[in-house]
Amino acid sequence: MTTSFITTAIPFVNARPHVGFAYELVLADILARHRRRRGHDVRFSTGTDDNSLKNVLAAAREGVPTHELVDRNSAAFRALTGVLHVEPDDFIATSRDPRHPIAVEHLWRACAADLYRKTWEGRYCTGCEAFVDDYVTVCDEHGTTPEPIREDNWFFRLSRWREPVKQLIASGRVQIVPDSARSETLAFLDGDVRDLSVSRDAERSGGWGLPVPDDPSQVIYVWFDALASYVSQLGLGGDAALLERYWHRGDERVHVIGKGITRFHAVYWLAFLLSAGLPVPDRIAVHGYLTVDGKKISKSLNPIEVDPFVERCGVDAVRWFFARRCRTRVDSDVTVRAICNAYDLDLADRLGNLVQRCIGLAAKVSDGRVPPRDTNLQSIAEALPARVDAALEAFLVDDAAGAICELVDAANRALEQTAPWKLTDRDAAARALYAPLEAARIAAGELLPFVPDAARTILARLGDPSDAPAWGLLEPGRELVAGPPPLPRKQYDAEPNSRSLHE
């Protein structure tokens, strides 16, 4: 059986989660559900990056102990999975999980040949948790002024691994999608790649973080710590059964991340793994940001949570908007109106209405049961799984969702063209319903990774048939379930306030 290990990034917990990370969670959940649907042995994980200086500073601003702020916000990130109907197999909180410090120390010692200590002076962006070039006066990502720092730290010989990392990416051994993220990474590797500071002064961090092995004056740099979480949750340095299954012998290792942290994953992480003699990931899937009125959503600058969207629109509407209307390779603007309209147009009006009409007609011409089989629409329906697979393989989630919509559109056109309500031959009218109903079943099955509740609702109205994508599995004679529209419209009419996103 093919194994798939899929992760989100683990976000800092200096504040509560915003809708941008909700987007990432849903994208990764769609990939994991899709892989399971195709028969893969899937392990899907997420978590929180607790050992950050940002968390220490945020706690100081609130006047609370760091552990209190971290525990509170980490719990909010964990709860977000339930809000969005995301189903991870693992959630790692790096300050609490006993697997994590064991793995980080193991990775550090495995990289020992590339670690050395020196004094270095530069400018540090706490928002990025990274040193920046001297010419950077304001961080593009966070809008803050980098702080001048002079410290004696441990460094990693990133320069030694520049060419091996470049070769991994250029050869396609490590795929970075979209192409723009791949090109930016290769351009960075073509430049002056300097060694990387991988520790911080323990006094400056208030002692928060994991100590450098054999050097308690230093704590391990948060990105070395955080990136190690991908293998700490699999048991690196401890019970390594999962590590062997999903990393060493795994068929597919995928990180789903936001575009602002591509370099950390596509350069630093690969170099750490190569230095430690560990396998590298197969794919780094990079998504754009969510924006409101063109402004990036972030925990510090534009903190907009996902709960108001879910409360007003419903979880499936939010998930569908992320999948269908947000293009992974660019930034996407989000409003309550846009979420509701996407759901109404694609799911309520097209799929839900198709099923409602067919069931109503079946009550008149086939005693409310599935009519005899017909092969109209079979070719387009049978082509759908491969189209969805190809789109998700390229991390074109909107294309995958669009392919499903195209099948639904074809079914609606077929219903209009055959017009069974106009036919006087009752048997002919019944036969004309089979193809649209079977297309709706196949579409609902392929929708399960995207909008699981809506998809199951459609399948229930079709009598709970198989959700497998093969044509003809909707058995003639199966009783259809009449009732109100299966996917009621959201009908959002008022323009929301762009700041609060409430009506």
Q: Can you walk me through this structure?
A:
The protein is α/β, with parallel strands linked by helices and 503 residues long. Helix content is 46%, strand content 15%. It has helices spanning 19-37, 53-62, 66-83, 99-110, 162-170, 179-190, 222-227, 229-232, 241-248, 262-276, 307-313, 315-325, 336-365, 378-393, 397-418, 426-447, 452-461; strands at 3-8, 41-48, 90-93, 115-125, 130-132, 147-156, 175-177, 196-197, 199-201, 211-212, 215-220, 252-258, 283-287, 290-292, 295-296, 332-333. The strands form four sheets. A six-stranded parallel beta sheet has the order 3-2-1-12-13-7, sandwiched between helices. A hairpin with a 4-residue loop joins strand 4 (115-125) and strand 5 (130-132). Helix 4 (99-110) crosses helix 10 (262-276) and helix 11 crosses helix 12 (315-325). Residues 494-503 have low confidence and may be disordered.
Brief summary:
By secondary structure, this protein is an alpha/beta fold. The chain contains 17 helices and 16 strands. The longest helix has 30 residues, at 336-365.
Summarize the helices and strands and which ones pair or pack.
Blueprint lengths: L2 E6 L10 H19 L3 E8 L4 H10 L3 H18 L6 E4 L5 H12 L4 E11 L4 E3 L14 E10 L5 H9 L4 E3 L1 H12 L5 E2 L1 E3 L9 E2 L2 E6 L1 H6 L1 H4 L8 H8 L3 E7 L3 H15 L6 E5 L2 E3 L2 E2 L10 H7 L1 H11 L6 E2 L2 H30 L12 H16 L3 H22 L7 H22 L4 H10 L42
Parallel strand pairs: 1-2, 1-12, 2-3, 7-13, 12-13, 14-16
Antiparallel strand pairs: 4-5, 4-6, 6-8, 9-11, 10-11, 14-15
Helix pairs in contact: 2-3, 4-10, 5-6, 5-10, 6-10, 11-12, 12-13, 12-15, 13-15, 13-16, 14-15, 14-16, 15-16, 16-17
